[in-house]
Amino acid sequence: MAVSLAFWLLSDLPSAAQEIARFIGHADFLRSVAFGPNGDRVLTGSGEGVALLWDIATEAEIRRFVVHVGGVHAVAFNLDGTRLLTGGSDNIVRLWDAATGAEVQRFTGHGHWVTSVAFSTDGRQLLSGSMDDTARLWDAATGTEIRRFTGHRDGVTSVAFSPDGAWLLTGSIDNTARLWDAANGTEIRRFTGHGDIVRSVAFSPDGQQVLTGSADKTARLWNVATGAEIRLFNGHGNEVMSVAFSSNGAQVLTGSWDDTARLWDTATGAEIMLLTGHDENVNSVAFSPDGRKILTGSSDNTARLWAIPEELLPITALLDPVESAATVIPPAPDLIPIQPRTDVLALIIGNHRYQAGVPTVDFADRDAEAMHRLLVERLGFPSSNVRVLSDMTLSQMQQWFGTAEVPRGILHDVIPSDITELLIYYSGHGVPGPSSGRAPSPFLLPVDGLPGRPELTAYPLDTLLSNLAGVPVERVSVFLDACFTGATPAGTLQTSTSGSFAVGVARPDIATNVFVLSATGFEEEGRAQMAHWLTEEKHGAFTWHLMAALDGAANSNGDAAITMAELHAHVRDALRREAFSGRIGPQSPTLEGTNDEDPVVVRLLGDN
């Protein structure tokens, strides 16, 4: 089947119409489109029951899947692009081998059309939504139904996995979107406010927000933790059929029955770009993995590829691909096998983009991404046991960890009974706060915090550690790539002071079941050090060497068990070598809480 591909010089066109490719081959309207994870392939599903896999570079149809009687309503790629999903009017979900076109598995049980499908991040589970008013979770390997999610009063139109796989999101003809616990099937939260059918739902990349599109002609942004509506995207002249987040969450995309797609600024709700050219309804939209291109599927039987002008891209998307590519994990010596830790939950925080004129933490987002990859890819953490929280505000920190007055936050209530340990990692600013007879108190600075008023706008480290001690686990390990001096390698956080402003802070109070490894020393060490960055590796120096230590490099005594003390010793010596070489200034990490116990963090598998 031929593909018609039209190119224009981007500089010759207004920002409203930068179509760069057109895929023609379907004999009926397109209901669903998806980008492959490498951005080089796209998948389209249509009303004639056919799904087509396309190669963008060669402009060719790679493979044709004649799959569903009555029409393909939903398509999806898994994370590595080796498997495809389709769902259709025959009430069936099908799993395909992308390379051979062979049907791998079939999922049956829905009593009506399958309207939406999704892969979990690890590809082991599938999610489907149906006009039978249910969503269902499936085992990808066996085809068996794991769990059924019931509660909607009408058909389920759209489904999505949270990035960490812990939560599911559904949209329905009953005008609501709902958040579910993937592990037990209970409804956690309901998002209400749309005046008509919720046609499409999506999670933000950090899992903290959800986006919904509705037949009421609007899209809405919601806070996952509270269920509150954050923002309204209003401008379409007909039903919003499809919504998507860019890979960095800075932009959202909507497709509508007004024959257009629209690009919006997530933070402000402003419309950035209008995409016109389709002759009929836009039923499905998707972002390319790098956030630079848009794919649309329409009732005019075509899918079209659009380029976002560089002047409209968020700053992070303008970085050189090498700069913004997935982070590199420091290699372990001889790639030592590591015993998986399925009994640990990990919460990773990367505070990168600060507000109110506060300098960014250059590599905090990369630190968080790399730590997530290390835990899942090398240390054997189930992906559902690891959650990344990016650019946390004070309100979000209080919701998750509680306050001094209300110490029980969200985290306390989401610990499964088989979890014995908790790992907390933080990369971001710390600041000194008011003292109470000692040196200044340490505070973690949320992205909306003011360095000059930490007592009002920052989160006390003492409160965090005290509240973590009350979480129902046996042990909590905390890793802090932050200093509390008020100074950074980019300059002071206190705009009214000189760049040399830096103070020491008091040692935090530590409960018996909490262990803290921090990037710098506290006041008792007589130092006021900064947490330095490694510009070549594009990571915090502490984080870079901590990752190597966790990955086996800290096993100095060869006993196949890496303890907190061994992590501390390895990172301390590595930072001393960095300082001696002149790459960073003096930086002495400190370990707190190991007076009576030196807990094992990583166990290696090997001869020892």
TrEMBL record:
Organism this protein belongs to: Fertoeibacter niger
Name of the protein described by the UniProt record: Caspase family protein
Pfam families for this protein: Peptidase_C14, WD40
An example Gene Ontology biological process: proteolysis
Entry keywords, A to Z: Repeat, WD repeat
Molecular function, one GO term: cysteine-type endopeptidase activity
PROSITE patterns, A to Z: WD_REPEATS_1 (PS00678), WD_REPEATS_2 (PS50082), WD_REPEATS_REGION (PS50294)
PANTHER family noted in UniProt: TRANSCRIPTION INITIATION FACTOR TFIID, TRANSCRIPTION INITIATION FACTOR TFIID SUBUNIT 5
WD repeats: 23-64, 65-106, 107-148, 149-190, 191-232, 233-274, 275-306
Stored InterPro entries: Caspase-like_dom_sf, Pept_C14_caspase, WD40/YVTN_repeat-like_dom_sf, WD40_PAC1, WD40_repeat_CS, WD40_repeat_dom_sf, WD40_rpt
Domain Peptidase C14 caspase: 345-593
UniProt-listed SUPFAM superfamilies: Caspase-like, WD40 repeat-like
The organism's place on the tree of life at top rank: Bacteria
